[in-house]
Amino acid sequence: MLMRTDPFREFRELDRLAQQLMGTGTWSRPATLPMDAYREGDDYVMAFDLPGVTPDAIDIDIDRTTLTVRAERRPAAKDDSVRMDLSERPLGVFSRQVFLADTLDTERITASYDNGVLTLRVPVAERAKPRKVAVSSGDRPAPQQLTG
């Protein structure tokens, strides 16, 4: 259900590796947000890894068929007496833009956040679900169209 529009995926992987080595994302250049996407029944599901992010730091926007997820992992408040010896968990802004197929019902997206994973469910539009079509023969009209 995702429309593949990234012919430079390998370059994006190199960019992701460079971001890990050089630092965190900023509002003008956010780090890539890892995700899984799959179909489950009549829903298209996307799961984004956001460990250590509070729900109020997550922003989800939809513009027609473009879904944008943006989140910010902020540093934990520390007392002046705390001296950091090692800091490997990335902080900053993370973002992912996903181009959805027009066969998804973007009016009914739901979002939940549990154990550091943001899960978005997008129902498949009724018009995109499989259905049977009745066939007419000669002067005899077709029976009413069947659904399901």
> Helical segment tally?
1
* Distance from first to last alpha carbon: 20 Å
What class, by secondary structure content? mainly beta
Q: Detail the poorly predicted runs.
A: none
Query: How much helix is in the residues?
Result: under 10%
Cα gyration radius (Å): 22 Å
Shape: elongated
Q: Strand portion, in percent?
A: 25-35%
Spell the H/E element sequence: HEEEEEEEE
pLDDT averaged over residues: 81
Let me know the number of strands. Answer: 8
Key words describing this protein structure:
single chain, mainly beta, 4-stranded mixed beta sheet, 1 helix, 8 strands, elongated
Question: TL;DR of this structure?
Answer:
This protein is mainly β.
Verbal overview:
The chain is mainly beta and 148 residues long. It contains one helix and eight strands, in the order H-E-E-E-E-E-E-E-E. The protein has one helix at residues 9-22; strands spanning 31-32, 35-40, 43-49, 58-63, 66-73, 92-99, 110-114, 117-123. The strands form two sheets. Strands 1-6-5-4 form a four-stranded mixed sheet, with no helix packed on it. Strands 2-3-8-7 form a four-stranded antiparallel sheet, with no helix packed on it. Strand 2 and strand 3 form a beta hairpin.
